[in-house]
Amino acid sequence: MKINKTINSSDSVDLMINMGPQHPSTHGVFRLLLNIDGERIIEVEPHIGYLHRGSEKLCEYERYAQVVTLFDRLDYVANLNMELGFCLAVEKLMELEIPDRASYVRVILSELNRIASHLLFYGTYGLDVGAMTPVLYAFKEREKIQNFFESVTGARMMHNYFRIGGIKEELPDNFNNRLQLLLEEVSKGIEECDQLLSKNEIFLARTKNVGVISASDAVDFGVSGPNLRASGVARDIRVSKPYSIYDRFDYAIPIATSGDCWDRYYVRLEEVRQSVIIIKQAMDQMEEGPILAKVRRIARPPKGEVYFRTESPRGDFGVYLVSDGSDKPYRVKVRAPSFANLQSLQYLLKGAYIADAVTILGSIDIIMGEVDR
Amino acid sequence: MENDNNSFKDDKSNLSSLKPTLNQNHLISLFNKKFSSMASIGMHSLQEDIQLNIEPKYINSICKVLKNSPDLSFNYLECITLVDYEKNLEVVYHLTSFKLKESIIIKSLISIDSPIIDSVVNIWRAADWFEREAHDLFGVNFSGHPNLKPLLLFEGFEGYPGRKSFPINDYQEW
């Protein structure tokens, strides 16, 4: 840690503390400059861009089917949700009808990925506030999901499983039984995790009434997803503007009111339970059938543009696609939820104790691959 | 793509080909009342949202009305996108009103030789990083933005990598 000393005109001494880019609690390469007065943070300057790979520019030089692989690498703990967002945008542009079975498989896998992503949050957030054990329990469950993904898509991460018009291949033979078993184990694991950390006295003291953001401020900063719902705004794209087949399921959207770190944490835990409910319904409704719509090998969407919103584990994931009629997109813009969520950090950290900086940063649940793109 | 680059975008026949919903009809009449002299209002064929095409000089005043008038209250700025059409840059704003449960798109064309547009960061704080990113990658100057420092790129980076004219292969970093 590098410390610069600057002396103000008044007698008090301001310290500039550099945090990151290689800091275990920044979940990637993210740098913060904290200007502190005693124990209080008075000014924050976030620096991002260490992971900037120019994904949006690269998309313009790849065919539509190849772009899916780039989307895998945006939010690298929720790969399938990213693939889903892009595929749906292209399909909307081409006005494609997707076979029902493919849609169900997509929903099941995306919701599983949401659970895996939230479990990762649960584990690392425990670490952020100083609890070592939760991460072991969370990763045990997450590993089961990743293994399941491997058996279905062939890869633990970076699946490239969703195709424009459907999915890559038929599910493995014992898919339903294994998914049933997985859901039972994961549900049990979630309850275990909940009992382990949520009502822990030290955890409550570290997170309750820390990093509070009101609904109107959160909306003004463009915050979305669980972070926004923790502040009491009922916005979930799956319900407010249902995409794919999300209107066929019956589930609840967890909402908290106080908008502090604990609420942001607990909303995610509740969401995992709702995802399990969605997957169970999807399993019951899913029928045999084709898995890929009749599409040409090389997709050529007509001239036009579309902005497609989906609900990724981190919030409103928007894909803005401009097509010039060729086999490559003219422009792809990714509205990454973490990017907007991270903006609120400057507000959240102002006036907070320096000991809470990591608690607050962790509760926003950022993924730098998505922020920097 | 290389030749005749502007032919596919300014296709006005696309506008108003989709039927607006009742709610949207009401919004369109509201917009016509408020901005008829400043914006062309319609629906795009694929996007289900109302689209306002406006001149860059009106952006701040229109956005202020959109956010602050109680019958509209577009309080959520989702995204600011830049699209490079080689001669022009198009600035695209996606807004949502939680009250009306409607989304709209605002589009404004600026010349690539003098890419200046008013900042909306005084209206939505969410615009801060979106504008900084656009400044980084496309070289757009948002007048009125308090802090247009590089966000994704490092200080002293030359060129605008988001633009079509920026080479993807011949670029030497070191």
Q: Name the helicity range of chain B.
A: 10-25%
Number of helices of chain B: 3
N-to-C CA distance of chain B:
30 Å
Helices and strands of chain B, in order, run as HEEHEEEEHE
Order of helices and strands of chain A: EEEEHHHHHEEHHHHHHEEEHHHH
Indicate the low-confidence ranges of chain B by residue numbers.
Answer: 1-17
Secondary structure: helix percent of chain A = 40-55%
Description:
The complex is a heterodimer of chains A (373) and B (174). Chain A is an alpha+beta fold. Chain A has helices at residues 55-59, 64-72, 79-94, 100-128, 133-153, 175-198, 201-207, 215-220, 226-230, 237-240, 261-285, 337-343, 345-349, 357-364, 368-372; strands spanning 3-7, 13-19, 31-37, 40-47, 162-163, 166-167, 304-312, 315-323, 331-335. In chain A, 47% of the residues lie in helices and 14% in strands. In chain A, the strands form three sheets. A four-stranded antiparallel β-sheet of chain A has the order 1-2-3-4. Chain A has a three-stranded antiparallel β-sheet with strand order 7-8-9. Chain A is globular, with a radius of gyration of 21 Å. Chain B contains three helices and seven strands, in the order αββαββββαβ. Residues 1-17 of chain B have low confidence and may be disordered. Chain B has helices spanning 22-35, 59-68, 127-138, and strands at residues 39-43, 50-54, 76-84, 88-97, 102-111, 116-118, 141-143. Chain B has a single domain, classed as 2-Layer Sandwich (Beta Polymerase, domain 2). The A-B interface holds A 48-49, 52, 54, 56-58, 60-61, 92-93, 216, 219-222, 233, 235, 240, 303-307, 309, 316, 318, 320, 322, 324-326, 330-331, 333, 335, 339-340, 342-343, 347, 372-373 and B 1, 8-9, 11, 14, 44-47, 49, 75-79, 81, 83-84, 92, 94, 98, 101, 105, 124-126, 128-129, 150-154, 161-162, 164, 166, 168.
